Amino acid sequence: MSYSIQGKTAIITGAANGVGLAIARKFIDQGASVMMADRDEKHLRSEVSAVEEENGNARVFHCDLREKLSQANLISATIDAFERIDILINASRQVLTTDPMDPDDKSVEVLLQQNLLTSFRLSQMVAKRMIKQAEGQDVDSVGSIVNLSSIAAQRSRPGLMGFSIATAAMDQMTRTMAIALAPEKIRVNAIAMGSVMSASLKTSLNETEGLRDDIVAHTPLSRIASPGEIADIAQFLSSEASGFITGQILSVDGGRSLLDPVRTAAH
Q1: pTM greater than 0.85
Q2: d(CA 162, CA 132)
Q3: What are the C-alpha distances in Å from 224 to residues 25, 211, 232, 255, 256?
Q4: CA distances (Å), 215 to each of 47, 184, 258, in order?
Q5: Whole-angstrom Cα distance, residue 34 to residue 78?
Protein backbone atom coordinates (compact mmCIF):
# COMPACT_ATOMS: atom_id res chain seq x y z
CA MET A 1 0.00 0.00 0.00
CA SER A 2 1.08 3.55 -0.69
CA TYR A 3 1.67 6.34 1.81
CA SER A 4 1.16 8.84 -1.00
CA ILE A 5 -1.43 11.62 -0.71
CA GLN A 6 -0.37 13.26 -3.96
CA GLY A 7 -3.34 14.60 -5.90
CA LYS A 8 -5.67 14.41 -2.90
CA THR A 9 -7.52 17.44 -1.56
CA ALA A 10 -7.47 18.12 2.17
CA ILE A 11 -9.15 20.59 4.48
CA ILE A 12 -6.99 21.27 7.52
CA THR A 13 -8.43 23.35 10.36
CA GLY A 14 -6.30 25.09 12.96
CA ALA A 15 -3.71 25.50 10.22
CA ALA A 16 -2.17 28.82 11.24
CA ASN A 17 -0.01 27.49 14.06
CA GLY A 18 1.64 24.49 15.66
CA VAL A 19 0.46 21.02 14.76
CA GLY A 20 -2.17 22.13 12.26
CA LEU A 21 0.40 24.20 10.39
CA ALA A 22 2.90 21.32 10.41
CA ILE A 23 0.30 18.97 8.93
CA ALA A 24 -0.60 21.51 6.25
CA ARG A 25 3.04 22.01 5.30
CA LYS A 26 3.59 18.25 5.17
CA PHE A 27 0.57 17.67 2.95
CA ILE A 28 1.51 20.49 0.60
CA ASP A 29 5.06 19.15 0.34
CA GLN A 30 3.65 15.68 -0.46
CA GLY A 31 1.64 17.00 -3.40
CA ALA A 32 -1.81 17.35 -1.87
CA SER A 33 -4.04 20.33 -2.50
CA VAL A 34 -4.71 21.95 0.86
CA MET A 35 -7.31 24.36 2.13
CA MET A 36 -5.89 25.87 5.33
CA ALA A 37 -8.56 27.18 7.70
CA ASP A 38 -8.10 29.23 10.87
CA ARG A 39 -9.35 32.27 12.75
CA ASP A 40 -5.85 33.79 12.82
CA GLU A 41 -5.97 35.38 9.36
CA LYS A 42 -2.74 37.37 9.64
CA HIS A 43 -0.60 34.40 10.64
CA LEU A 44 -2.41 32.10 8.23
CA ARG A 45 -1.68 34.31 5.23
CA SER A 46 1.90 34.98 6.25
CA GLU A 47 2.56 31.24 6.45
CA VAL A 48 0.92 30.25 3.17
CA SER A 49 1.97 33.07 0.84
CA ALA A 50 5.44 31.75 -0.05
CA VAL A 51 4.24 28.16 -0.27
CA GLU A 52 1.32 29.09 -2.49
CA GLU A 53 3.54 31.05 -4.86
CA GLU A 54 5.95 28.12 -5.16
CA ASN A 55 3.52 25.20 -5.41
CA GLY A 56 0.11 26.63 -6.27
CA ASN A 57 -1.65 23.90 -4.27
CA ALA A 58 -2.52 25.81 -1.10
CA ARG A 59 -5.37 28.17 -0.25
CA VAL A 60 -6.37 29.92 2.95
CA PHE A 61 -9.79 30.41 4.48
CA HIS A 62 -10.25 32.76 7.41
CA CYS A 63 -13.30 31.93 9.51
CA ASP A 64 -14.76 31.06 12.88
CA LEU A 65 -15.68 27.41 12.44
CA ARG A 66 -18.00 27.48 15.43
CA GLU A 67 -20.49 29.08 13.03
CA LYS A 68 -22.40 26.73 10.75
CA LEU A 69 -22.34 29.21 7.86
CA SER A 70 -18.56 29.42 8.08
CA GLN A 71 -18.33 25.64 7.78
CA ALA A 72 -20.58 25.63 4.72
CA ASN A 73 -18.55 28.44 3.15
CA LEU A 74 -15.30 26.57 3.85
CA ILE A 75 -16.56 23.53 1.99
CA SER A 76 -17.80 25.66 -0.90
CA ALA A 77 -14.46 27.47 -1.14
CA THR A 78 -12.61 24.16 -1.22
CA ILE A 79 -14.81 22.79 -3.99
CA ASP A 80 -14.41 26.01 -5.97
CA ALA A 81 -10.63 25.83 -5.67
CA PHE A 82 -9.98 22.09 -6.01
CA GLU A 83 -13.31 20.49 -7.11
CA ARG A 84 -13.35 17.78 -4.42
CA ILE A 85 -12.55 16.87 -0.80
CA ASP A 86 -10.70 13.64 0.04
CA ILE A 87 -9.33 14.34 3.52
CA LEU A 88 -10.44 16.32 6.56
CA ILE A 89 -7.98 17.00 9.39
CA ASN A 90 -9.75 18.42 12.44
CA ALA A 91 -6.73 20.12 14.02
CA SER A 92 -8.45 23.19 15.44
CA ARG A 93 -8.43 22.87 19.21
CA GLN A 94 -8.08 24.91 22.35
CA VAL A 95 -6.57 24.18 25.77
CA LEU A 96 -7.97 25.93 28.84
CA THR A 97 -7.60 25.25 32.53
CA THR A 98 -10.65 24.43 34.67
CA ASP A 99 -11.56 25.15 38.27
CA PRO A 100 -13.83 22.19 39.08
CA MET A 101 -15.33 23.99 42.10
CA ASP A 102 -16.10 27.32 40.44
CA PRO A 103 -19.75 27.44 39.26
CA ASP A 104 -18.91 30.39 37.01
CA ASP A 105 -16.14 28.53 35.18
CA LYS A 106 -17.24 28.13 31.55
CA SER A 107 -14.24 26.17 30.29
CA VAL A 108 -16.11 22.88 29.90
CA GLU A 109 -18.75 24.47 27.68
CA VAL A 110 -16.14 26.42 25.70
CA LEU A 111 -13.96 23.37 25.07
CA LEU A 112 -16.85 21.12 24.13
CA GLN A 113 -17.91 23.73 21.57
CA GLN A 114 -14.44 24.42 20.22
CA ASN A 115 -12.83 20.98 20.37
CA LEU A 116 -15.78 18.63 19.89
CA LEU A 117 -18.84 20.17 18.28
CA THR A 118 -16.97 22.17 15.65
CA SER A 119 -15.17 19.02 14.47
CA PHE A 120 -18.34 16.95 14.67
CA ARG A 121 -20.45 19.31 12.55
CA LEU A 122 -17.69 19.85 9.99
CA SER A 123 -17.16 16.09 9.73
CA GLN A 124 -20.86 15.60 9.01
CA MET A 125 -20.83 18.18 6.23
CA VAL A 126 -17.59 16.98 4.67
CA ALA A 127 -18.73 13.35 4.80
CA LYS A 128 -21.87 14.25 2.85
CA ARG A 129 -19.71 15.89 0.21
CA MET A 130 -17.40 12.88 0.03
CA ILE A 131 -20.38 10.55 -0.44
CA LYS A 132 -21.85 12.75 -3.15
CA GLN A 133 -18.66 13.00 -5.18
CA ALA A 134 -18.19 9.20 -5.03
CA GLU A 135 -21.62 8.36 -6.44
CA GLY A 136 -21.41 5.78 -9.21
CA GLN A 137 -17.75 4.96 -8.52
CA ASP A 138 -16.48 1.55 -7.43
CA VAL A 139 -13.67 2.49 -5.04
CA ASP A 140 -12.26 1.03 -1.83
CA SER A 141 -11.91 4.42 -0.15
CA VAL A 142 -14.11 7.49 -0.43
CA GLY A 143 -12.35 9.63 2.13
CA SER A 144 -10.51 9.92 5.42
CA ILE A 145 -11.24 12.03 8.50
CA VAL A 146 -8.54 12.48 11.14
CA ASN A 147 -9.28 14.11 14.50
CA LEU A 148 -6.64 15.51 16.82
CA SER A 149 -7.25 14.29 20.35
CA SER A 150 -5.09 13.88 23.45
CA ILE A 151 -4.06 11.30 26.01
CA ALA A 152 -5.75 13.69 28.46
CA ALA A 153 -8.94 11.84 27.51
CA GLN A 154 -7.73 8.98 29.71
CA ARG A 155 -6.02 11.05 32.40
CA SER A 156 -7.32 12.75 35.55
CA ARG A 157 -6.07 16.19 36.55
CA PRO A 158 -8.57 18.69 37.99
CA GLY A 159 -7.00 21.67 36.24
CA LEU A 160 -7.46 19.98 32.86
CA MET A 161 -10.95 18.66 33.51
CA GLY A 162 -12.61 20.57 30.67
CA PHE A 163 -9.95 19.58 28.17
CA SER A 164 -10.12 15.94 29.32
CA ILE A 165 -13.90 15.87 28.95
CA ALA A 166 -13.75 17.38 25.46
CA THR A 167 -11.05 14.99 24.24
CA ALA A 168 -12.79 11.96 25.74
CA ALA A 169 -15.91 13.01 23.86
CA MET A 170 -13.80 13.45 20.72
CA ASP A 171 -12.54 9.88 21.03
CA GLN A 172 -16.04 8.48 21.36
CA MET A 173 -17.24 10.63 18.46
CA THR A 174 -14.39 9.20 16.37
CA ARG A 175 -15.40 5.62 17.11
CA THR A 176 -19.09 6.21 16.51
CA MET A 177 -18.61 8.17 13.29
CA ALA A 178 -16.27 5.44 12.05
CA ILE A 179 -19.05 2.89 12.39
CA ALA A 180 -21.65 5.20 10.86
CA LEU A 181 -19.48 6.06 7.84
CA ALA A 182 -17.88 2.66 7.22
CA PRO A 183 -20.67 1.59 4.82
CA GLU A 184 -19.85 4.71 2.80
CA LYS A 185 -16.12 3.75 2.74
CA ILE A 186 -15.11 6.80 4.76
CA ARG A 187 -12.57 6.11 7.49
CA VAL A 188 -12.47 8.08 10.75
CA ASN A 189 -9.51 7.93 13.13
CA ALA A 190 -7.92 10.09 15.80
CA ILE A 191 -4.41 10.90 17.00
CA ALA A 192 -4.17 11.02 20.80
CA MET A 193 -1.20 13.29 21.36
CA GLY A 194 1.04 13.38 24.37
CA SER A 195 3.27 16.39 24.83
CA VAL A 196 3.87 17.97 21.43
CA MET A 197 5.52 21.33 20.84
CA SER A 198 2.27 23.04 19.90
CA ALA A 199 1.60 26.76 20.20
CA SER A 200 -0.24 26.24 23.50
CA LEU A 201 2.55 24.11 24.98
CA LYS A 202 5.16 26.69 24.01
CA THR A 203 3.19 29.27 25.95
CA SER A 204 2.88 26.97 28.96
CA LEU A 205 6.61 26.19 28.94
CA ASN A 206 7.41 29.90 28.95
CA GLU A 207 5.00 30.59 31.79
CA THR A 208 5.63 27.58 34.05
CA GLU A 209 9.03 27.00 35.59
CA GLY A 210 10.09 23.36 35.62
CA LEU A 211 7.30 22.20 33.30
CA ARG A 212 9.65 20.99 30.58
CA ASP A 213 11.65 18.89 33.04
CA ASP A 214 8.45 17.43 34.48
CA ILE A 215 7.15 16.43 31.04
CA VAL A 216 10.45 14.83 30.04
CA ALA A 217 10.67 12.97 33.35
CA HIS A 218 7.23 11.43 32.82
CA THR A 219 7.75 10.48 29.17
CA PRO A 220 9.59 7.17 28.65
CA LEU A 221 11.27 8.46 25.47
CA SER A 222 12.42 11.49 27.51
CA ARG A 223 11.51 14.25 25.08
CA ILE A 224 8.72 16.39 23.67
CA ALA A 225 7.52 15.49 20.17
CA SER A 226 7.82 17.87 17.25
CA PRO A 227 4.68 18.89 15.32
CA GLY A 228 6.21 17.22 12.26
CA GLU A 229 5.98 13.82 13.92
CA ILE A 230 2.22 14.27 14.27
CA ALA A 231 2.08 15.35 10.61
CA ASP A 232 3.69 12.05 9.61
CA ILE A 233 0.99 10.11 11.46
CA ALA A 234 -1.72 12.27 9.89
CA GLN A 235 -0.35 11.44 6.45
CA PHE A 236 -0.36 7.72 7.27
CA LEU A 237 -3.99 7.82 8.43
CA SER A 238 -4.96 9.76 5.30
CA SER A 239 -3.24 7.40 2.86
CA GLU A 240 -3.95 3.99 1.37
CA ALA A 241 -1.41 2.51 3.79
CA SER A 242 -4.08 2.73 6.52
CA GLY A 243 -6.90 1.59 4.26
CA PHE A 244 -8.13 -1.08 6.71
CA ILE A 245 -7.89 1.13 9.81
CA THR A 246 -10.93 2.97 11.12
CA GLY A 247 -12.32 3.97 14.51
CA GLN A 248 -8.88 3.89 16.12
CA ILE A 249 -7.40 6.31 18.63
CA LEU A 250 -3.67 6.14 17.92
CA SER A 251 -1.57 7.27 20.90
CA VAL A 252 1.50 9.26 19.88
CA ASP A 253 2.98 10.10 23.25
CA GLY A 254 6.48 8.67 23.65
CA GLY A 255 5.11 5.94 25.90
CA ARG A 256 3.59 8.33 28.40
CA SER A 257 0.20 6.62 28.51
CA LEU A 258 1.89 3.44 29.74
CA LEU A 259 2.71 5.09 33.06
CA ASP A 260 0.58 5.87 36.11
CA PRO A 261 -2.33 7.92 34.71
CA VAL A 262 -2.72 10.08 37.82
CA ARG A 263 0.94 11.17 37.80
CA THR A 264 1.18 11.68 34.05
CA ALA A 265 -1.83 13.79 33.07
CA ALA A 266 -1.11 15.41 29.70
CA HIS A 267 0.17 18.97 29.56
Answers
A1: yes
A2: 36
A3: 20, 11, 16, 11, 11
A4: 29, 41, 14
A5: 8
